[in-house]
């Protein structure tokens, strides 16, 4: 078997970015049963480029854990032989990544302009932020909280009826560039707020009594790159000193157990923590805004994909947060709300023990800052499509997630501190 591994390692690594067709690339799911099988995955990752989808890195893999990863076309048969030979349970989740990629765009909506049931590119989203604010001046305003590494403005929408000393909820989407369903949800949430204000009693009360800050895309440069260059890109697009590898994982870049568990110090790793906490312009802009508005922001919601999880602190430690019981019961009730529409099952709990330890996340950072209601959503699905969730699932995904978000927001309103 080791001879086979060495053979795989010797095959080219450079075919990587020359022509980005994903034709023939496969996504495997394996469940290593013991340390030896985990070791095989570690070795595989060390000799060839393996893109880990779930968990984010091979370093987090443990026995009995479900592991999804993508491999280059020319390696996929050898990898399959290796898995067979090692006796590891595996299945091919996606047989041809390019086909799955093309199949994402299955929306029946035929429009070149913005649509809530399609994936919109950044230029379309940016124009939409201006439009939605212009069309709903009494409910929505737009500001710029910073700019990205490549100089793009970071637009923030503030939603709510004007009132004195209102408390607020901060929500962001699009931390990881390839998680397209995430920005789709932020857009959907804004749409629902403006369309149902005055009709839906819960939404009306929420907007009357709270403000919502919505950052539709955090990692704009990365998101643009997924549309133009590499659909599977995850990180930011900043240059790293002394390395040809680009980008930092923005959700490992916060000052919460920074660069300890589940984060890498290698600029080439997909979980690279950056040169220092808030080294990324995007994370710094977000953190600065929250710090400046700390007296009013009472909840923090960050939207990711995939795995159908509702997580709360901590991820950088196995220690439980002070209000663990409360957060757990909110997550339980919100997951029930979510499941009530399409019966989508979510798992909930503290990040480290529910999935794996991961340091430097925005949710832990916000919580440690004093925002006691801090949650991370990992939206659909559980791996059938992974990051390539078809557009036909945008509406049901957003509808069900909205129920959970409204539940949490309403709880926060009733338990202001």
From TrEMBL:
**Which one Pfam family would you cite for this protein?**
Propep_M14
Which InterPro entries is this protein grouped with?
Answer: CARBOXYPEPT_ZN_1 (IPR057246), CARBOXYPEPT_ZN_2 (IPR057247), CPB_M14_CPD (IPR034253), M14A-like_propep (IPR036990), M14A_act_pep (IPR003146), Peptidase_M14 (IPR000834)
Give start and end of each Peptidase M14 domain: 118-412
List the active site. 378 (proton donor/acceptor)
Q: Could you tell me what reaction this enzyme catalyses?
A: Preferential release of a C-terminal lysine or arginine amino acid
The encoding gene is: Cpb1
Q: Where is the signal peptide?
A: 1-15
**What protein does this entry describe?**
Carboxypeptidase B
Name the UniProt key words of this record, in alphabetical order. Answer: Carboxypeptidase, Cytoplasmic vesicle, Disulfide bond, Hydrolase, Metal-binding, Metalloprotease, Protease, Secreted, Signal, Zinc, Zymogen
Kindly list the places in or outside the cell where this protein is found, as annotated in its UniProt entry.
Secreted; Zymogen granule lumen
| CC per GO annotation | cytoplasmic vesicle; extracellular space
GO terms assigned for molecular function: metallocarboxypeptidase activity; zinc ion binding
Organism annotation: Origma solitaria
Per the entry, which co-factors are needed? Zn(2+)
Tell me the GO BP annotations in alphabetical order: proteolysis
Which class of enzymes does this protein belong to?
hydrolase
The main place the protein resides is: secreted
What Enzyme Commission number(s) apply to this enzyme? 3.4.17.2
Family according to the record = Belongs to the peptidase M14 family.
């Amino acid at each position: 078997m080791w001879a086979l591994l060495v053979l795989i390692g010797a095959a080219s690594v450079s075919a990587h970015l020359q022509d980005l067709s994903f034709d023939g690339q496969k996504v495997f799911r394996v469940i290593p049963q013991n340390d030896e099988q985990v070791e095989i995955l570690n070795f595989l990752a060390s000799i060839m480029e393996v893109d880990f989808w779930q968990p984010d890195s091979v370093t987090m893999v443990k026995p009995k854990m479900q592991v999804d990863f993508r491999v280059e076309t020319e390696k996929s048969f050898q990898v399959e032989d290796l898995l067979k030979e090692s006796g590891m349970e595996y299945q091919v989740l996606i047989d041809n990544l390019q086909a799955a990629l093309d199949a994402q765009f299955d929306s029946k909506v035929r429009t070149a302009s913005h649509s809530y049931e399609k994936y919109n590119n950044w230029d379309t989203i940016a124009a939409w932020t201006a439009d939605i604010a212009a069309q709903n001046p009494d409910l929505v305003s737009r500001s710029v909280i910073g700019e990205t590494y490549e100089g793009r403005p970071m637009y923030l929408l503030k939603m709510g009826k004007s009132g004195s000393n209102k408390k607020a909820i901060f929500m962001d989407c699009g931390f990881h560039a390839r998680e397209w369903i995430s920005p789709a949800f932020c857009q959907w949430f804004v749409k629902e707020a403006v369309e149902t204000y005055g009709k839906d009693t819960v939404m009306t009360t929420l907007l009357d009594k709270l403000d919502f800050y919505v950052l539709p895309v955090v990692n704009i440069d990365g998101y643009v790159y997924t549309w133009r260059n590499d659909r599977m890109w995850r990180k930011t697009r900043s240059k790293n000193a002394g390395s040809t590898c680009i980008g930092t994982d923005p959700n490992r870049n916060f000052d919460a157990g920074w660069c300890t568990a589940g984060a890498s110090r290698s600029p080439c790793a997909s979980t690279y923590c950056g040169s220092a906490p808030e080294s990324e312009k995007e994370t710094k802009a977000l953190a600065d805004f929250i710090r400046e508005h700390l007296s009013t922001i009472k909840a923090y919601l960050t939207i990711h994909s995939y795995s159908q999880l509702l997580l709360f602190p901590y991820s950088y430690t196995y220690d439980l947060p002070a209000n663990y019981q409360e957060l757990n019961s909110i997550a339980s009730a919100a997951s029930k709300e979510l499941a009530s529409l399409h019966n989508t099952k979510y798992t909930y709990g503290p990040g480290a023990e529910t999935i794996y330890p991961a340091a430097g996340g925005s949710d832990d950072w916000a919580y440690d800052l004093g925002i006691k209601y801090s949650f991370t959503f990992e939206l659909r699905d559980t791996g059938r499509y992974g990051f390539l969730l078809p557009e036909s699932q945008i509406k049901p995904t957003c509808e069900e997630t909205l129920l959970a978000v409204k539940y949490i927001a309403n709880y926060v309103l009733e338990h202001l501190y």
